[in-house]
Amino acid sequence: MKVEFWGVRGTAPAAGKNFAKYGGHTPCAAVESSAGDLIIVDAGTGIRRLGDRLMAGSGSRALEIPLFLTHFHLDHVIGLPFFAPLYSAQTRITFYTPILPKEAEKWLSGLMARGYFPVAFGETAAAKEFVKVEEESIAIGKLEISHCPLNHPQGSVAYKIAEQDAGIVFGTDTEPPEAGMDERLAGFLRGAAHFVCDATFTPEEYRRRQGWGHSTWQHGVELARAAGVRNLLLSHLNPDHEDRAIDELVRQSRREFRRTAAAHEGLRLVI
After folding, report:
1. What is the mean pLDDT of residues 28-56?
2. For residue range 103-131, what is the model confidence (pLDDT) as tens digits?
3. What CATH number does the domain containing 64 carry?
4. Which of 72, 121, 162, 217 would bridge 112 by S-S if both were Cys, CB 3.0 to 4.6 A apart?
5. How far is CA 26 from CA 45, 51, 77, 85, 213, in A?
């Protein structure tokens, strides 16, 4: 199974030479099974370049794209209007979301409503289907996808994507309970090789921003240890944190959890 990150910045994009190492695009990742089954997680600004690559590689072939949205906050969907396959009649996109299909279509239509965007969501050429993720896992080719609700304003979910015994969990946009850890999320993480965690705040920043729905590298370490996860990837990076600040977060985390790294645009994993 292969994973490629196309955007790892949370809240808002960031730009400039001091953000070049980890990148400034908001969340998007592609996961491909050993048989070539592809799914996309989130549609932040990073999805634009992914869409261009998919179109360039498709030739005359039809594209079937399963797109899993963790939630509908702008940083996770703002790239969708610029996703080239959305405008191709040879594309079928299945939107997997935590909400009812009619609501998902309504919210994405609002993103491209008149006054915000020149082309309405319903006018785009791709065929569209909307599926609410349920308690049961979903099989797409060789990939098995399951989800877990997260503690986040207006809701969000984590996705576990696995092939056979190898798996990765995208678990950003979450905040721990006031006391202890999120035991439900810790249980969900068990068996995963990689945990992509919410590292929006430093521990010092978090003390001033409790209730905002985000976490720190310390919370990621606690969850990874409790679940026996082998690799921790800091993600949903703060747009105010320059490369040197993120380097320091990684150094601090490695003192407590050696196999820590920060996700970055262009990072490719083989799991």
Report:
1. 97
2. 999 999 999 999 999 999 999 999 999 99
3. 3.60.15.10
4. 121
5. 5, 15, 9, 19, 17
